Amino acid sequence: MIKKAIILSFTFFALSLYTLYTANKIAPEVAKKNNPVVLELFTSQGCSSCPPADALLDQVKSDYPEEVIALSYHVDYWNYIGWEDPFSDHAFTEKQKAYAHKFDQRNIYTPQMVVNGKEHFVGSNRLILQSKIQEHTFDSSAKLVEICETTLSDGVLSFTYNFITAPDQKWIRALLVIDERETMVNRGENRNRKLKNSNIVVAEKRTDLRLRKNEVSLKVPDLVQQNDGLTLVVIVENQDRDILGAAQKRIVR
């Protein structure tokens, strides 16, 4: 009787340790079969609260290269303070406003992190981010889309894609992303700081799937430098901007 109790206690202890371990770790063998979690960080080099969120996004990019697609959108409403963010785009401000309308927000803010287009929080909150990555990884459906052939010619990136699972939704987003860039900020709230930004979105196109075949092209903007590492990201979403699937692929130049 005593031996049985010891064995049961040891078994319970082992299971508890395993549960604790898996609760704090994303299982790559599960994630690779599923759609990656898409993180969209709205940020600005003119915002003093943004560098911690930028650093956190960079860490997530390194820690979860298969499980997460991390994206950095630079908005333009901080530019008036004195520093014009070279990656800022008014289209990204409008994109954030569209999310605000979806989430019933009265105001937009930075740094804001949006997870799979479904929920948001302050982008520098490490604990919430870790929790949401785990939650959305294990809730993810089977992989939906893959990127096939890519061609870069005369400043235009063209590519084809293929659906692994037939989509019920009608929208696809194509994004061109700079892997990372360091900028010396001379004015504004972050003056005299060298900032590192990762996975910077520099071009984006949203396409109605009913209007095209499985081929899309993106113009490479002039701000892309020859030594920049580039990644192509494809996102499938519904009319409400819920992200249902995504894929990414390095661009060889």
UniProtKB/TrEMBL annotation:
The keyword Transport does not apply. Keywords: Signal. Gene3D superfamilies: Glutaredoxin. Residues 1-23 form the signal peptide. It comes from the Bacteria. Pfam families: DUF1223 (PF06764). The lineage of its organism: Bacteria, Pseudomonadati, Bacteroidota, Flavobacteriia, Flavobacteriales. This is DUF1223 domain-containing protein.
